[in-house]
């Protein structure tokens, strides 16, 4: 939330500024800047005493030179004071939301103009000025601020993994995957989505991956498919009816299939609406990670997808499985075929797995044996 100069002045006059930190158990700490200047250091006489070896005795202070601005002053500490990952030399003006590091100790400066806003999990009491290793430099606020920047700058990369026809091992399309491309954040989508979930912004990240990738995939030859992913929060029809038409407009001629995780296929009525919407937009439907949890056979029958992607856990080392185990998978593949559904074996990594899956009747393959995700089409 941005704070205007007028709000800053009011906050300063009302004493509504805080240093916000996180404890190892995930609780929030608020340190009220009850008076200015406010001294931070390892000395017990400091207003905020951080009992950490990388904090200098008198590390820094926060003050207001004019009752309109808030400034942090660095006292030449050994391990430094940083604002938004930039080392401070002398004085640096602050604004609400800035991330401060005193050594490795991480805080965020927060303007909270009413008492209800200033009621976190843990309040720091001014009579108890020593925080001993309570706020380590885990990068919580830094990662959140960086994540905002990633979304704003659209700093992600599209990766594509080939999808293979079992009959001749030819490429018929690609699954669109994503990677982060922002300094200070993990590139892997899993950790990025964890950060997104902590901010309630999974849909924004998923949409960004999708938009970047589909725009790139427009160069594919006619008939080549692109499978794209969704997060469970997106499978609500109100989101899809807003976003999917825009995606189709981005690539009017591209053959696309939307993957829905098996765990999200729980409401037959909603899935029928999703299927109808996709059909109107000429977008296919795939159920992802089939068999990873509860095998939703009723949903499979009532709202059959175009493609059923069998989870990697069912495919890995399938050549070493007993005959009865293979027979169960063959039965599911045959049932899917009877329903007009194509079956895809995910995670095929070695020749033996591919050969057994071919024998069991799988229509498609995907896995490292045929190609790893890459930023180009192979």
From TrEMBL:
GO molecular function terms attached to this record: cyclic-guanylate-specific phosphodiesterase activity
Residue intervals passing through the bilayer: none
Gene3D superfamilies per record: 2.60.200.20, EAL domain (3.20.20.450)
Residue span, FHA domain: 38-88
Residue intervals of the EAL domain: 140-378
InterPro entries with a match to the protein in the record: Cyclic-di-GMP_PDE-like, EAL_dom, EAL_sf, FHA_dom, SMAD_FHA_dom_sf
Name this protein carries in UniProt: EAL domain-containing protein
The species this protein was found in: Thiospirillum jenense
Lineage start: Bacteria, Pseudomonadati, Pseudomonadota, Gammaproteobacteria, Chromatiales
């Amino acid at each position: 939330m941005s704070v205007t100069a007028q709000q800053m002045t009011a906050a300063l006059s009302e004493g509504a500024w805080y240093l916000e930190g996180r404890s190892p158990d995930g609780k929030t700490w608020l340190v009220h800047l009850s008076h200015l200047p406010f001294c931070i250091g390892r000395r017990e006489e400091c207003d905020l005493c951080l009992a950490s070896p990388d904090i200098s005795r008198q590390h820094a202070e926060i003050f207001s030179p004019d009752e309109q601005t808030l400034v942090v002053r660095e006292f030449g500490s050994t391990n430094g004071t940083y604002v938004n990952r930039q080392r401070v030399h002398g004085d640096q003006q602050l604004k609400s939301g800035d991330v401060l590091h005193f050594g490795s100790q991480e805080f965020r400066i927060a303007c909270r103009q009413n008492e209800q806003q200033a009621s976190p999990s843990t309040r720091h009491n001014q009579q108890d000025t020593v925080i001993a290793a309570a706020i380590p430099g885990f990068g919580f606020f830094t990662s959140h601020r960086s994540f905002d920047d990633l979304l704003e700058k659209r700093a992600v990369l599209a990766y594509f993994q080939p999808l293979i026809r079992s009959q001749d091992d030819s490429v018929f399309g690609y699954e669109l995957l994503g990677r982060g491309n922002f300094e200070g954040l993990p590139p892997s989508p899993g950790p990025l989505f964890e950060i997104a979930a902590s901010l309630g912004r999974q849909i924004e990240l998923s949409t960004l991956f999708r938009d970047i990738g589909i725009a790139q995939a427009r160069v594919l030859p006619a008939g080549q498919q692109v499978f794209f992913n969704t997060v469970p929060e997106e499978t609500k029809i109100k989101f899809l009816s807003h976003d999917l038409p825009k995606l189709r407009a981005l690539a009017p001629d591209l053959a696309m299939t939307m993957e829905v995780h098996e765990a999200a296929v729980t409401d037959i009525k909603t899935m029928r609406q999703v299927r109808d919407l996709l059909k109107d937009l000429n977008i296919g439907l795939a159920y992802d990670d089939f068999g990873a949890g509860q095998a939703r056979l009723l949903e499979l029958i009532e709202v059959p997808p175009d493609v059923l992607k069998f989870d990697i856990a069912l495919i890995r080392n399938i050549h070493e499985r007993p005959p009865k185990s293979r027979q169960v998978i063959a039965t599911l593949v045959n049932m899917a075929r009877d329903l007009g559904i194509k079956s895809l074996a995910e995670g095929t990594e070695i020749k033996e797995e591919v050969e057994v899956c071919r024998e069991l009747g799988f229509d498609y393959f995907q896995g490292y044996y045929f190609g790893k995700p890459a930023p180009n089409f192979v």
